[in-house]
Amino acid sequence: MNIHEYQAKAILREYGAPVSRGVPIFSPDEAVAAAQSLGGPLWVVKSQIHAGGRGKGKFKEEAAGEKGGVRLAKSVDEVKTFAAQMLGNTLVTIQTGPAGKQVNRLYIEDGSDIEKEFYLSILVDRATGRVAFVVSTEGGMDIEEVAHNTPEKIVTFSIDPATGAMPHHGRTVAHALGLTGELAKQAGDLVSKLYRAFVEKDMAMLEINPLIVTKDGQLKCLDAKVSFDSNALYRHPDVVSLRDTTEEDAKEIEASKYDLSYIALDGTIGCMVNGAGLAMATMDIIKLYGEEPANFLDVGGGASKEKVTAAFKIITADPNVQGILVNIFGGIMRCDIIAEGVIAAVKEVGLQVPLVVRLEGTNVELGKKILTESGLNVIPADDLDDAAAKIVKAVKEAR
Fold this sequence. Notes:
six-stranded antiparallel beta sheet, Rossmann fold, Dna Ligase, domain 1, nucleotide-binding, alpha+beta, D-amino Acid Aminotransferase, Chain A, domain 1, magnesium, four-stranded antiparallel beta sheet, ATP_grasp_subdomain_1, succinate-CoA ligase (ADP-forming) activity
């Protein structure tokens, strides 16, 4: 689960990390009140969307002006003008894709006098099974670009969970960023606080880009991007309350209600599969035959008829779907349950696109019989290769 910058900074503030004062707002009038409460003389007006690259992004609407999604204002009137231009308009960044995201809230923040910019992030390193820090002197830039062009400027280290963050970890960060004296002490203190926040809140990723040194010699988290481990959210009702569903795909929200693993993609062939590995293989073979998957959807090993029906309805709700491939290996999941769920869903929502079903495993013959006797226009497949070939062929013929 992702949250907005201002929410992430509020959490960091709880742990004593240095962040600027700021106020989230939802209207131009609120922006004025926020600017007046902060006092100025400089304010930063920040679009709040779940995507990076906001400063370099562009709004689709001319009324939003030519500046990006992060703007420096030098007066209260300018804050109000920027807020009016940005709210309700669509911001396109390198991470949103061409569709962009509508800006429904802003963060009005104190301006900072920046001396230096750095990059710092914390994430779970799957290779070591530990929490890892990634730091670089190249702050304010896309870390992917830094990794590609100057990988030697990125320093990574992991922390033993038995000890947690230790003084030498802070010294490692300070050395990597070229910080000495008082700034080195601040770096050590910040590493300890950020690590504690990361672990206690079950974060999956914490990115500060940039981490700055102000002209009066203070480290400050100028931006903050946080995502949480969804499997641990039951421990954090306070974090769950921060969820902004307007930033999420409606189909993914619906899928979460049924405990379905669903991710919307840009292709044309909808997939309903049980098991993450089989789902990935299904997506790969669709690409091999020249089409693109419209989604990743794992209904799980013990899905009920209701879950299968919900999954099918979610797939058909995507207007880009031109064909559907159901690929089920019935171990725990029985093939007859899948067949009944598919029939129920088709009867409820209708079937406007080709449907190929490949079943294998427990009660496979009964499942095939149920589909055959349903009277539906279902194309049977013998194996995964056969299924992919048939759905791609059916989709191309239907165009």
